[in-house]
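Morning run. Coffee first, then this:
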Amino acid sequence: MYLGMVLVLFAWAVYLSSIWSLVGPVFFALYITRFQIVPEERALDGLFGAPFAEYRQRVRRWL
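And here it is:
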């Protein structure tokens, strides 16, 4: 879901043809990682423990 949002923002930046518009997708990716993905991973680790740790080793964060 988050990857799709970044891709939409990137497509919009390309459509605008401005180098400054690329700041949006980069900022969004950094922000969503820090304030959404990392807290979600902490919560899932607390709920599921070892199975989630194994899953996290097999699956990359953004893909």
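The helical segments are 2-16, 23-48, 50-58. Good start to the day.
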